[in-house]
């Protein structure tokens, strides 16, 4: 059985506490005067009236002070509760608890803090679309990681935005005025990867008609991103380890050591510890890279960002296009194995197919409208808010 809660207004609670302290002080004073000064008992009535007066005066003073303190807070809360960004259901539930001022204050301040963090995220990371708690937690980590020179390992499924996060780390770092060089390890043939990384001397191999600087030299004093590092060959991994440890290397076909000052950011869509166990990734290199790790959650773990992403991709369309409520609900209910990249491709395709400028549910591929959550789109209310849709789906 749930115990009943007793809520007392702060306008009563604080003055009563102060008045109680005054009464306690009067009682102690009286007892001391009777014990040590042989205070006449006939004056008890006089003392009682005097004590009552002090208690009432203390109560009124405390009430006035409480009013002065809470008045601007109440005005602030009243104004902020009228903002459209506040969830009305939470406000009404808290107001239903009579006298529960602290709960109302906590709820409003929490919502204000939440809104401010979203504004901060939009200001500091304008190129990244997302306001979910998961994304804001990543932003917080980026702001802590960026000012350091430590190596960063970004992991996450394909299409989660690892390159964008790496770019954000660079933009908030002390090296933001220096070069930022990116290299996708899986996009370069194995025979040319070392030449791309370290450069080569003239005549070092067939086709090397001139000396070429590698990515490390180009990124000197700046930052280098090694994307999909899990696909790097073992022979190249050994040479990369030397650059991480010694900060020097030789060009392909060269004998002179070249020193560089580079910050490393590595990214991978593979589970590197599993690759280490399989012997396809060097254990010592993994520990060198995994100084500061950053995990990017898949889109299915932050569904509240789907409406924002859909709106963003539609804003880039060549013609004005909107999305219907039913179509948006189907997007929220899909698991998106291809993550943001898959969502972007689907939105672009649907925008082209939308005849009247509105994406309807029949413009979306069947594998998406069928869903994977076990709930059809028709079961969701057309007038439901985004939060209610997410809650029903989850």
In the CATH hierarchy, what is the architecture of the largest domain at level 2? 3-Layer(aba) Sandwich
What kind of sheet is the major sheet?
5 strands, parallel
Instruction: Measure the end-to-end span.
Output: 29 Å
Outline, from the CA principal axes?
Answer: elongated
DSSP strand count: 11
Q: Using the CA coordinates, give the radius of gyration.
A: 33 Å
Beta content comes to 5-15%
Describe the structure.
The protein is α/β, with parallel strands linked by helices and 394 residues long. Helix content is 53%, strand content 9%. The protein is built from 16 helices and eleven strands. The longest helix is centred in the N-terminal third of the chain and has 38 residues, at 44-81. Mean pLDDT is 81; it is low at 371-383.
Structure summary:
The protein is an alpha/beta fold and 394 residues long. It folds into three domains: 10-86; 150-297, P-loop containing nucleotide triphosphate hydrolases (Rossmann fold, 3-Layer(aba) Sandwich); 300-393, Helicase, Ruva Protein, domain 3 (Orthogonal Bundle), CATH 1.10.8.60.
How is the secondary structure organized here?
Layout: H1 10-37, H2 44-81, H3 88-95, H4 101-124, H5 133-145, E1 152-155, H6 162-171, E2 180-184, H7 190-198, E3 199-200, E4 212-213, H8 215-218, E5 223-227, H9 234-246, E6 248-249, E7 258-259, E8 263-268, H10 272-278, H11 283-289, E9 292-295, H12 306-315, E10 322-323, H13 325-333, H14 339-353, E11 358-359, H15 366-369, H16 386-393
Parallel strand pairs: 1-8, 1-9, 2-5, 5-8, 10-11
Antiparallel strand pairs: 3-4, 6-7
Helix pairs in contact: 1-2, 2-4, 3-4, 9-11, 12-14
């Amino acid at each position: 059985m749930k115990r009943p809660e007793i809520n007392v207004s702060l306008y009563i609670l604080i003055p009563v506490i102060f008045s109680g302290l005054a009464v306690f002080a009067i009682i102690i004073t009286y007892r001391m005067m009777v014990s040590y000064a042989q205070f006449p008992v006939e004056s008890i009535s006089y003392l009682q009236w005097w004590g009552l007066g002090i208690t009432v005066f203390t109560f009124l003073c405390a009430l006035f002070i409480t009013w002065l303190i809470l008045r601007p807070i109440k005005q602030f809360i009243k104004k902020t509760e009228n903002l459209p960004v506040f969830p009305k259901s939470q406000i009404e539930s808290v107001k239903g608890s009579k006298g529960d001022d602290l709960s109302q204050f906590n709820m409003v301040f929490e919502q204000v803090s939440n809104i401010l963090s979203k504004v901060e995220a939009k200001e500091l990371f304008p190129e990244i679309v997302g306001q979910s708690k998961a994304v804001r937690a990543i932003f917080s980590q980026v702001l802590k990681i960026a000012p350091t020179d430590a190596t960063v390992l970004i992991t996450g499924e394909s299409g989660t935005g690892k390159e964008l996060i790496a770019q954000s780390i660079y933009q908030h770092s002390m090296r933001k005025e220096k070069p930022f060089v990116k290299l996708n390890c899986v996009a370069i043939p194995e025979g040319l990867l070392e030449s791309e990384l370290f450069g080569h001397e003239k005549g070092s191999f067939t086709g090397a008609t001139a000396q070429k600087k590698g990515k490390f030299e180009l990124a000197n004093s700046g930052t280098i991103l090694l994307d999909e590092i899990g696909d790097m060959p073992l022979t190249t991994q050994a040479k990369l380890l030397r650059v991480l440890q010694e900060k020097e290397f030789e060009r392909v076909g060269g004998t002179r050591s070249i020193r560089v000052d580079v910050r490393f950011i590595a990214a991978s869509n593979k589970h590197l510890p599993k690759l280490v166990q399989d012997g396809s990734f060097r254990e010592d290199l993994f520990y060198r890279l995994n100084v500061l790790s950053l995990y990017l959650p898949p889109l299915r773990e932050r569904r509240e960002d789907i409406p924002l992403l859909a709106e963003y991709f539609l804003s880039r369309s060549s013609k004005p296009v909107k999305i219907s409520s039913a179509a948006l609900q189907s997007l929220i209910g899909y698991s998106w194995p291809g993550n943001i990249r898959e969502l972007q491709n689907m939105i672009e395709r649907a925008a082209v197919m939308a005849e009247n400028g509105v994406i309807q549910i029949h413009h979306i591929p069947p594998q998406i409208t069928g869903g994977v959550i076990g709930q059809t789109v028709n079961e969701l209310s057309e007038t439901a808010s985004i939060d209610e849709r997410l809650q029903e789906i989850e």
